[in-house]
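Predict the 3D structure for this chain.
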Amino acid sequence: MLVLLQDGCPVPTDVRLWDRLLVWLRAASLDGDLAAGASPDATVALSLRARRLVRTAARRGLARAAQRVLAEAALGPAADRRPVPVCRDRIEDCSAELLDLIRRLLAAGPVSAQGVAQARALLLNASSPIYHRASRDDLRASVLAAADALTPC
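Done. Predicted structure below.
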């Protein structure tokens, strides 16, 4: 059972197997909604996805992904084992910000699902400025936004 907010009032809601399957099938879309600021309390699907994102294991996995990105940028072309190589110059320019993001992902305590979803999109999406040279998004600004969004309201 989940408690969702409807018109500012808490409403207990049952979670069905179908809801869990829907979350699994729509994970990327739900992540995009959460990253954009959708309330995790708005729907059962958003709530379930947010709970999965903020788990310690998920955050550790993202921190490891960020560490691998930094390592690949530092080691040069020989380290490119990914299907999509990293944009080394961009990563080197904002390595301090990436280290701060890693620190915040690994920190004890609650974090917001929005920040984790933003970090996930940045680290795992091939069209992010980490991997996609033609991306118009500023990597430093994206990393800072994800790190700032990790702080719960």
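The two ends are 23 Å apart (CA to CA).
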